[in-house]
């Protein structure tokens, strides 16, 4: 048996079925303007942005071991870049989303250099300080409304598309596209040679290090990529909100607490986890929204219970029991026929 | 058999799914010195950790002073009189020599051993009492580890490879003190890879091979051939 | 004189930050746990004091007699029932569980006490002050709080390095599994450390409540101030933590003097600068 007779196989039968179903789902969702009403479109758009945020946080914390509680820094940064680009430089919002991603990646490089000096747990609080700094700086920018924030001028909005319906479709498609891009990108990253290293880091960092994997370089890469994706999502979120202020843009509850709970409940360290978690989160929110702060309290309690008693989350529970995987990520050696 | 201090019967011990001990049975009488020998990975440390309560047998029974102790945690075992000198010494780096010894007395058992008595046993430690424990030489650190275990006034002292990494002269110095320790009436289990060393100090010997007792007997009566067959499994 | 005054007030408020930091640094030292809910527990102590003061009619400082033991009991229980289960090689569980606790405490307080901001009044002592220099007034209450901070940090230092209790903490911190071999039940030792940490938190919470307005949402900022004091001072050194708190307080006071919007930001920037130039902190613990 020569080496050539062996190849690495990612797909299992379950994951082939999973991928086919997912592809069908994406097509159906892309056609949603044909079958869904406006309120549902808006809700689904919001769901997609949370899928993107949670998937990115999962990549950061669940795979690279970088437990950040400060990703709201990049959500808010993305939002502010969009508003600044549109208001100050007349950049079309859709182009501004891309600009937000690029600038966030640039900014993430020095931030990572500083934060990586903090070991383990202290990294988490360090990222929170960074988010606070961003918030305080944003509050100092007079042309963007300082502490009270600013609205997107009507001209910018009508520039997206002439009719309101079309604008809503475009924003919906952008959100869907972003979610697909983020999840697809993560699957591709995990299937690349970095993926093997990331999985090794997730499972055992010491072993990964002794295998000669440059743990530090991969962590840098993941931090920067995640910052860019998070900022693009943030830009899109505030494009739909039409108004931004430091407190909403850099809110730890909205952009980090929810995202962490979604990922933990769905299953951290698995691509499917954030998807399942987001669905659960929105189901709960739609039924329990009236509870206000009690809702957040319950969500926190559920996340603690899951972390203590089912640390792999809902998806981990299901996947372990039935051997399911929706994405072709498992590596298995197969003999070529 | 009430006259056994420690009685292990058919112990199975696991690390997760990996089984390290298979049906190990062993007895230690009060005041007895027993050697446990075996090659690398034979399960010697696993056995001592089980006696000390750091690991728990999945099957079999462990009795100490007539009481079933197989599920007790380590801190409860020390309080009952089982002290372990762990492999690799494992001193507390941020504690001084004297503090390492004092923490050994934490279990609060009365008995012959006190700071003064262990300083009499190893006078060099009295000189070094204020020094950080890791600043000592390897042999001195081993003395601290033994003295620290004695401070709990054990009935059973378990020593895991106390000669590891030490020069022969230092090993001799330490082994020369063992009679003074057993003279207080405690039982002693010595784990060594060095067969000669172990056999010279012990009255009885158990040889482990791949997690099983391959040979047991009187230290004086065992033949060289029998020992090496049990040791290497040839 | 305005500047001298700003610096003096900064030093005094820095003492409070050091108190926030001491509890944080204590449990990190013993069990390598960073408690993200630390700030919210401080605020919880403030509300506990509020309840004690309003129901029993006690003076806020006297309420410490109840708030300190109550918080210690909460700390012991929290550690035994929840946090001990999260300790291990994996960083995620303790972080996520304490993050969850933080959200639970904040929203629980919000449900109970609403978002209104509160303050405790300590009576006559609050308005008493003396003139240290021309134009520089020192309030009796801030001075008392600073003295208490120094006493607590000195006390913790003694406890850690001069008592059997502290020896057990240090041994457990070095090597929990060997500590068990010494007869120490590490779950109990960890719970005692958390009880001690929350006893310090209780003092910090009461002083916070008499010095400034508080509401359920201010916890995270107290966590951040404490954390910054720890990092500026250097990990594992209690006196360094005091220095870190003072530096942070002075930086904020100077920032506020320049522009009120700069107060908090100036503190963060000093933290970032230290992290960039001297990541081990100004007074790291010398090993050995
Ligand atoms: N923490 C652990 N997890 C998994 N397996 C372990 C662990 N510790 C030991 N083992 C395995 O258990 C078996 C017995 O190990 P043990 O340490 O008891 O051997 P030993 O006889 O003390 O060897 P040595 O002479 O090298 O100290 C070995 O195969 C070892 O690889
Ligand atoms: Mg061994």
How would you characterize the overall build of this protein?
- The complex is a heterotrimer of chains A (337), B (234) and C (288).
- Chain A has 16 helices and four strands.
- Chain A has helices at residues 13-30, 32-35, 38-63, 72-89, 93-115, 120-140, 154-158, 164-191, 193-203, 205-210, 215-241, 246-249, 252-266, 272-288, 293-309, 313-322, and strands at 6-9, 150-151, 243-244, 332-335.
- Chain A starts with 5 loop residues before the first strand and ends with a strand.
- The model of chain A has no long low-confidence stretch (mean pLDDT 86).
- By secondary structure, chain B is of the alpha/beta class.
- Chain B is built from ten helices and ten strands.
- Chain B has helices at residues 44-51, 74-80, 97-104, 115-121, 123-127, 138-150, 168-176, 178-182, 195-201, 224-232, and strands at 6-15, 18-28, 33-38, 59-64, 67-68, 82-85, 156-160, 187-192, 204-209, 212-218.
- In chain B, the strands form two sheets. Chain B has a six-stranded mixed sheet with strand order 6-7-8-3-9-10, with helices on both faces. Chain B has a four-stranded antiparallel sheet with strand order 2-1-4-5, with helices on one face.
- In chain B, a hairpin with a 2-residue loop joins strand 9 (204-209) and strand 10.
- The N and C termini of chain B lie far apart (35 Å).
- Chain C has a two-stranded antiparallel sheet with strand order 1-2.
- Chain C has a single domain (2-114, 132-277), classed as ABC transporter involved in vitamin B12 uptake, BtuC (Orthogonal Bundle), CATH 1.10.3470.
- The termini of chain C are far apart.
- Chains in contact: A-C, B-C.
- Bound molecules: adenosine-5'-triphosphate and magnesium ion.
The quaternary state of the protein chains shown equals: heterotrimer
Mean pLDDT reading of chain C? 91
pLDDT < 50 stretches of chain B: none
What about the largest sheet of chain C?
2 strands, antiparallel
Q: Strands of the biggest beta sheet of chain B: in what spatial order?
A: 6-7-8-3-9-10
Q: How many whole angstroms does the radius of gyration of chain C measure?
A: 19 Å
Rough shape of chain C?
globular
What is the CA-atom radius of gyration of chain B, in angstroms? 17 Å
> How much of the sequence of chain B is in beta strands?
25-35%
CATH class bucket of chain C = Mainly Alpha
H/E topology pattern of chain C: HHHHEEHHHHHHH
Bound ligands: adenosine-5'-triphosphate, magnesium ion
Total beta strand runs of chain B: 10
Number of helices of chain B: 10
């Amino acid at each position: 048996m020569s080496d050539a007779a062996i190849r690495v196989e990612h797909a299992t039968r379950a994951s082939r079925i999973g991928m086919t179903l997912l592809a069908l789902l994406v097509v159906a969702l892309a056609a949603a303007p044909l079958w869904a009403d406006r309120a549902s479109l808006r809700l689904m758009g919001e769901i997609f942005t949370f899928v993107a945020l949670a998937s990115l946080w999962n990549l950061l914390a669940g795979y690279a071991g970088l437990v950040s509680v400060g990703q709201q820094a990049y959500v808010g940064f993305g939002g502010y870049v969009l508003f600044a680009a549109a208001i100050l430089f007349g950049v079309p919002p859709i182009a501004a989303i891309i600009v937000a991603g690029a600038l966030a990646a640039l900014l993430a490089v020095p931030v990572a250099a500083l934060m990586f000096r903090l070991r383990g747990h202290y990294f988490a609080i360090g990222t929170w300080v960074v988010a606070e700094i961003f918030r305080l700086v944003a509050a100092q920018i007079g042309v963007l409304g300082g502490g009270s924030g600013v609205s997107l001028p009507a001209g910018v909005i009508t520039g997206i598309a002439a009719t309101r319906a079309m604008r809503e479709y475009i924003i919906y498609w952008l959100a869907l596209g972003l979610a697909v891009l983020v999840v697809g990108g993560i699957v591709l990253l995990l299937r690349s040679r970095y993926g093997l290293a990331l999985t090794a880091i997730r499972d055992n960092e010491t072993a990964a290090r002794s295998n000669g994997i440059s743990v530090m370089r991969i962590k840098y890469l993941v931090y920067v990529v995640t910052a860019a994706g998070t900022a693009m999502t943030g830009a899109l979120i505030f494009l739909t909100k039409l108004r931004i202020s430091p407190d909403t843009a850099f809110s730890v509850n909205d952009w980090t607490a929810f995202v962490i709970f979604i990922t933990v409940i769905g299953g951290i360290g698995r691509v499917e986890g954030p998807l399942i978690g987001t669905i659960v989160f929105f189901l709960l929110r739609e039924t329990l929204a009236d509870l206000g702060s009690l809702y957040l309290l319950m969500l926190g309690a559920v996340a603690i219970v899951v972390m203590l008693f089912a640390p792999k989350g809902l998806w981990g529970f299901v996947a372990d029991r039935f051997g399911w995987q929706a994405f072709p990520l498992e590596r298995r050696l197969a003999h070529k026929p | 058999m009430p006259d056994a201090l420690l009685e292990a019967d058919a112990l199975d011990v696991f690390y997760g799914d990996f089984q390290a001990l298979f049906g190990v049975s062993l007895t230690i009488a009060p005041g007895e010195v027993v050697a446990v020998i075996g090659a690398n990975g034979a399960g010697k440390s696993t056995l001592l950790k089980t006696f000390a309560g750091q690991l728990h047998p999945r099957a079999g029974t462990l009795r100490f002073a007539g009481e079933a102790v197989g599920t007790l945690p380590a801190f409860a075992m020390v309080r009952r009189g089982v002290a372990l000198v762990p492999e690799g010494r494992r001193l507390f780096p941020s504690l001084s020599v004297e503090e390492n010894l004092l923490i050994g007395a934490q279990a609060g058992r009365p008995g012959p051993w006190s700071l003064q008595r262990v300083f009499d046993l190893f006078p060099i430690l009295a000189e070094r009492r204020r020094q950080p424990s890791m600043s000592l030489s390897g042999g001195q650190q081993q003395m601290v580890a033994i003295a620290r275990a004695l401070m709990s006034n054990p009935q059973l002292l378990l020593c895991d490879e106390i000669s590891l990494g030490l020069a022969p002269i230092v090993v001799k110095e330490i082994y020369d003190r063992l009679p003074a320790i057993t003279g207080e009436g405690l039982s002693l289990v010595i784990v060594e890879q060095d067969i000669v060393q172990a056999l010279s100090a012990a009255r009885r010997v158990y040889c482990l091979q791949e997690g099983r007792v391959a040979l047991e007997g009187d230290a004086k009566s065992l033949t060289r051939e029998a020992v090496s067959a049990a040791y290497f499994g040839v | 004189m305005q500047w001298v005054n700003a610096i003096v007030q900064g030093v005094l408020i820095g003492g409070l930050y050091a108190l926030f930091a001491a509890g944080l640094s204590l449990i990190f030292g013993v069990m390598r746990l960073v408690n993200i809910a630390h700030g919210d527990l401080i605020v919880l102590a403030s509300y506990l004091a509020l309840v004690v003061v309003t129901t029993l009619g006690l003076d806020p400082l006297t309420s410490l007699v109840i708030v300190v033991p109550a918080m210690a009991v909460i700390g012991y229980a929290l550690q035994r029932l929840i946090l001990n289960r999260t300790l291990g090689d994996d960083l995620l569980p303790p972080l996520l569980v304490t993050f969850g606790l933080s959200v639970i405490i904040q929203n629980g307080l919000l449900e109970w006490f609403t978002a209104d901001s509160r303050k405790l009044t300590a009576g006559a002592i609050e308005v008493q002050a003396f003139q240290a220099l021309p134009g520089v007034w020192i309030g009796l209450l801030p001075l008392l709080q600073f003295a208490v901070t120094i006493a607590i940090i000195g006390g913790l230092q003694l406890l850690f390095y001069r008592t059997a209790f502290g020896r057990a903490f240090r041994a457990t911190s070095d090597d929990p599994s060997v500590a068990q071999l010494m007869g120490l039940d590490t779950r109990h030792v960890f719970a005692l450390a958390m009880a001690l940490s929350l006893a310090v938190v209780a003092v910090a919470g009461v002083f916070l409540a008499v010095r400034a307005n508080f509401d359920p949402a201010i916890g995270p900022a107290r966590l951040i101030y404490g954390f910054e004091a720890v990092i500026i001072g250097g990990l594992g050194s209690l006196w360094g933590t005091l220095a870190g708190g003072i530096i942070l307080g002075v930086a904020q006071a100077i920032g506020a003097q320049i522009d009120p919007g700069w107060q908090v930001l100036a503190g963060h920037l000093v933290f970032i600068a230290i992290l960039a130039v001297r990541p081990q902190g100004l007074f790291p613990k010398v090993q050995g």
